[in-house]
Fold this protein.
Amino acid sequence: MATIVLLPDEVVLDGRPGEAVLDTLRRTGWTHRFGCRRGGCGVCKVDLVEGSTHDAALVSDAVLPPEERAEGVRLSCRAVPDTDVVIRLRADDSLRCTSPWLAGASSRRG
Amino acid sequence: MAIMRLGYVHVRVTDIGAARSHYSDTLGLKVMAEEPDKLYLKGWDEYDHHSVVLEEGGVGAVKFGYKVAKAGDLDQYEKALTQFGVSVERMSTGDNLAVGDGIRFTSPTEHVFELYHEIEYVGTETGALNPEAWPRDVRGVGAPRIDHALITGDDVDAMEKLFTECFDWNISERVITDPADPQLLATWMFCGQTAHDLAVLKGPNGKLHHFAFWLEDWNAVLKAGDIFAMDDVSVDVGPTRHGITRGTTIYFFDPAGNRNEVFSGGYLTNPDFPTITWTADQLGKGVFYIQRELNERFTSVLT
């Protein structure tokens, strides 16, 4: 089980094995900006600050070019943590609580 | 001389195996042919060889095929396009599996279109002699046929001009900025008797917004939604109704992130159909009639 810290809000979530970051958020009452949830549109790009991830399914280089990936850019809908991770949402994106009821039970502030 | 309908959509997918499962098992299209990196599929009520081509590698649209009524139409359209200022190339039998000679052009929005008349006839799954109402062994959603495509591009006006002037298409609906200073934001165009065979939304050139499959009625749209839940399909919006076209709908994504739609209903059109206008301030209601607001994905999520 991976610990996911989301910046800048410092919300901490527990990911399940094999679960992409966006799926962890949605399961625990949170969301952020996303599109197709299938790695095709690049709308859910986030920056990996610490830790490592792999993609749950193949992501096209046209959507996430190797140079961006090398800089730590990830698609939250595809990135599955291999270790504990720290992820920063972009300035024009924001973490939103969709269910305080769920979020209260399954997340904490870092 | 006429373009009859959208014949095929050719799209790229990142994983051909996942795409096969989506289009064949979930949507219920039949695999008609396969090559190492390509699949050709059709709906049960389609009689031409294929209506969807999936190609492995990347995402987004490769090209759109529209079928013309008579072989001689191709020469006429080639002439009309050339006069319009669009360069046209001839495609030969064998360029596309099962498809005959035709013409190919790139639209002002940088999409590739092919016009053709001949394609291998395979027949519907219920046949053409005393047919049953539907095939018993249809899988998943059981989409009978492809219906239309929506693409994005910078010059929507040029697309209207090209399709109405070169192909004699008509416009069912338009979205404009403001009646006092009307700039065109989107257009829905038809060659058949449905509300649209191609729609164009202002946005980046060369992108696919979605392509749609026809369903029989609203109940079939709801049932498709149930199947999307069972198969964990990423649903964008719906089931709901569009104000524009009046169709009922679900927007969803294939496993590569290309947007698909299941669509039913809408009105009947004729060449004298009076074009409906929507103003940008009512676009939310125009696109998602019941919710009356666009989601953040409508204009940003394209492949």
The domain at 3-91 of chain A is CATH 3.10.20.30 (Ubiquitin-like (UB roll)).
